[in-house]
Write a structure and sequence with these properties.
Helices cover 62% and strands 0% of the residues. The protein is mainly α and 79 residues long. It has a domain at 42-79. The chain starts with 5 loop residues before the first helix and ends with a helix.
């Protein structure tokens, strides 16, 4: 009597049960929005960029910047 591969016989039902159980554990919820009375987002990118720009970027650029005539002459000299 030839040996039948039992692995392939059992694989399909086990896979079906695994997929079925995993799908029943999921619940999809809608994301609350301002239209539906949800809270506004706590993260405000414009405010964060404005704060960083004024506090860090502008002082850094002012510290690293050189006088325009000197920078212009250096730029012309190095094509």
């Amino acid at each position: 009597m030839p040996n039948k591969p039992t692995c392939s016989i059992l694989a399909a039902p086990i896979l079906a049960v695994t997929v079925g159980v995993s799908l029943t554990a999921c619940k999809i919820l809608p994301t609350p929005s301002a239209e539906n009375g949800g809270n506004p987002p706590a993260f405000n990118a414009d405010k964060m960029v404005g704060d960083i720009w004024a506090a860090k970027a502008v002082p850094y650029l002012q510290q690293k910047a050189g006088p325009f005539p000197e920078v212009h002459a250096l730029a012309k000299a190095d094509p």
